[in-house]
Structure formats: C-alpha cells, structure tokens
Specification:
The protein is mainly alpha-helical. A hairpin with a 2-residue loop joins strand 1 (2-5) and strand 2 (8-11). It is built from ten helices and two strands; from the N terminus they run E-E-H-H-H-H-H-H-H-H-H-H. Strands 1-2 form a two-stranded antiparallel sheet.
Length: 174
C-alpha cells in the first residue's frame, strides 16, 4: 500500500496516501492516536494489501450503469430483517419474479439473493468493526436468522468467519 525506505516514504493513489499518513502519525504519536484519527476518518488504521472492496452497494453501482436497482438496494440495506425473497423484491419493483431476477443479473452481474447476502454481510461487518455486540445479536439484527447462516455468508463473501473478521478489522482490538 505504501513503501518506507529509510527517510523516504511513498505511496500511489489517494487512499494509499491516507494509509501512509496514518503510518506516519503512528510512528510519531503512537497507535492509539493513529486509531483515533482513523476512526474519525472512517477508515482502517492499517489495510492489508490484499483487502478487497467490501461495499456491496458500490460494487453494484459500478455494474448498474442505469441505476435501475439503486433505490431497491438502499431499501434492502435499511430493511435487512424484512421479507427479502425474490418474489417480495420483484413485487417492490413491479416486475414478475422471473423478469426481476433476469433484469437484476443483467444490470448488476449477480443474483438478487447474492445481493441481499452481500448487503447483510456489509451491515454485519460494520457492526463487528464498531461495536462489542455478540455475533448472535448481530446475526439477528442483520437478518441472517442464525449465527451459522451469518458464518456461512461471511465465508462465502469474505473467506473469513465473523469472529476472524472482527479480530482482523475491529477498532477496539487495535
């Protein structure tokens, strides 16, 4: 993400520059100060070089050039415990389930069920990072139904369990 070579520090890109700046703050003022600044900037204090873009809504927006499903995705994000089956989402979009499914895949590149899973994982990820809520409570509030369903979804999307994700990315554990 950035390179420190003796007195010379360099990075490529805006976000990598912010990573470098936080590393300099940590070097000069300590990890606690760097973490506080990172929290205020709403970013990780240290990102791994292999970290993928986690935002399901941003990934979908890149693919959905016509913004056909943006409002629906926003509604789903705000209603993760609602009935989010294809039939219900199709009804919200005034489409038949088959047309909705086909249109969603064509516009976003993924099925509606995968989008719901990604949005639930995004919400759970934010709660794991920023709260001490038990995984079971987070699973319920994000519409997973059970802790096991949340674990399977995390593994499918992030290749990590919820507890491993929390250990790696949680602010409070820094």
């Amino acid at each position: 993400i950035y390179v420190a070579d003796g007195p010379m520090w360099t990075s490529a890109g805006v976000t990598a520059g912010m990573d470098l700046a936080l590393a300099l703050v940590e070097r000069d003022h300590g990890r606690r100060v760097a973490l506080r600044i990172a929290r205020n900037l709403v970013m990780q204090a240290k990102r791994g070089g292999g970290q993928s873009q986690f935002s399901a809504q941003l990934r979908a927006q890149v693919r959905d050039a016509q913004s056909t499903f943006d409002a629906l995705h926003g509604w789903v994000s705000d209603n993760l415990t609602a009935d989010l089956r294809v039939e219900s989402l199709a009804k919200r979009m005034a489409m038949s389930p088959r047309t909705f499914h086909r249109s969603h895949v064509a516009a976003t590149g993924i099925t509606p069920a995968r989008m719901v899973r990604r949005l639930r994982v995004d919400a759970a990820r934010r709660l794991l990072e920023g709260t001490d809520q038990p995984v079971k409570a987070i699973a319920a509030s994000c519409g997973f139904g059970t802790e096991e369903q949340m674990r399977r979804s995390f593994h499918a999307e992030l290749k990590l369990s919820p507890s491993a994700y929390r250990d790696k990315w949680c602010w409070a554990r820094g």
